[in-house]
Amino acid sequence: MNRRRFLLQSPAAAAAAVAVSRAGAAEKPTAGPGPYAPGPKPAPVVKPGEFVFAAAHFDHGHISGQCASLAEAGGTLKWIFEPDTAKHAPFLARYPGVKVARSLDEILADPAVKLVTAAAVPSDRAAIGLRVMDAGKDYFTDKAPFTTLAQLEQARAAVRRTGRKYFVYYSERLHSEAGMFATQLVREGVVGRVVQVVGLGPHRLNKRTRPAWFFQKARYGGILCDIGSHQCEQFLTYAGARDARVTHAAVGNFANPDTPELEDFGEASLVADNGATNQVRVDWFTPDGLSNWGDGRTFILGTKGFIELRKYVDLTRDRAGNQVFIVDGKGEYQVNVAGRVGYRFFGEFILDCLHRTENAMTQEHAFKAAELCLRAQAAAIRLA
Questions:
Q1: I need a surface site. Which of 117, 151, 168, 331 has the fewest CB within 10 A?
Q2: If the chain, 384 residues long, is cut into consecutive pieces of 10 residues, what is the mean pLDDT of each piece?
Q3: Considering the entire predicted model, what is its pTM?
Q4: Rounded distance, CA 368 to CA 326, Å?
Q5: Are 276 and 307 a contacting pair, CB within 8 Å?
Q6: Pairing mode of beta strands 113-119, 138-142
Q7: DSSP-derived pairing of the beta strands 166-169 and 138-142
Q8: What counts of helices (H) and strands (E) characterise the chain?
Q9: Is the peptide bond before 144 cis (omega within 30 degrees of 0)?
């Protein structure tokens, strides 16, 4: 492992931190990052106008993050298309000069547009992606990218036929500084070989504000298909796996009898092709007393240490979240990565689109994560 990328500004400070951690259980654990200081944040990878993209179908609020991240990496938002004109205002204010399309076809006819990003109703995402790719453009959809395995196979065939990309906004890793920092740590071998990943994905229901499709299983796909897609993608990434199988899955509706097609709880167990295991719990039970929408956490166990991510809140201590806890052979470390890591996936993805490479993420990885959450959903037993 090359630890130079994580060195503190002062080598003496790093040595002192390690000395504290070695002092024994009676001493106060290391409070700082030790040898694991994050940064630097990535810079834009293209100049204005070099990578033009469009945004369509604003059925999920994630579309704001999709556009913002591409723009921060240097992308230029030229068009938006959304039938509900009330949703236009934030985009018109944030992106001066953006054009409002009368239809998706108007966007697809513009040769300057290289990518279309969308956050449609989940059951509609695949069909939109096929149209985009057949028009010669790359597609970047919100998760979950599919609600059926048949849609996945259609997308795989379209990628082979068109040579275009069908990518997915797995935001709980890609748009999390804690998640991206953990990706770097694992790749550097900080915890050795990863043997287990535990992912907890609780969300606040906000039932009164949800659209009708949110409660229709055929349209949202089920809780393991929806929220569980994040966990499958993180498992493949942190475990360094190419494939996995589902060994257990279960879903239930425990608190929402008035919306019987809503699944408010889900769990799953997976085993990767390299022997690593995954435990997943997702739910819509975030209580009103929590300061944000969910206490999302990830635990990564390796042969030489472990990592815990408190992504969105550090209960009773820090509402900002983005706390990374690391334990290795020399000590215990806490690293606050908020505002210090950034989201390098989006710049790498833009360059992949321009150069037809696969550095940000492989197409098969994006599809495999989608396949696993669909298989978990299909295998799930119903909890009474």
A1: 331
A2: 38 38 41 79 97 98 98 98 97 97 98 98 98 98 98 98 98 98 97 98 97 98 98 98 98 98 98 98 97 96 98 92 96 96 98 98 98 98 95
A3: 0.91
A4: 28
A5: no
A6: parallel
A7: parallel
A8: 13, 15
A9: yes
pLDDT tens string 44-69? 999 999 999 999 999 999 999 999 99
Kindly report the CATH class assigned to 52-170.
alpha beta
Of the candidates 147, 33, 35, 74, the one whose C-alpha atom is nearest the C-alpha of residue 342 is 74
Q: Distance (Å, rounded) from C-alpha 276 to C-alpha 184?
A: 18
Q: How many CA atoms lie within 13 A of 245 on its CB side?
A: 4
Q: What element of type H or E holds 65?
A: helix 62-72
Cβ neighbors of 223 (< 8 A, separation 6 or more) are 251, 263, 264, 265, 266, 282, 283, 284, 377
Determine the Cα angle at 213 with ends 210 and 216, to 5°.
115
- Residue position matching structure tokens 């299983």: 217
DSSP state of 334: E
- CA separation for the pair 309, 61 (Å, rounded): 24
**Contacting residues for 109 by C-beta, under 8 A, at least 6 apart:** 135
Q: Closest Cα to residue 138, out of 157, 123, 122, 158?
A: 158
List the domain boundaries for the chain. Answer: 52-170, 173-344+374-383
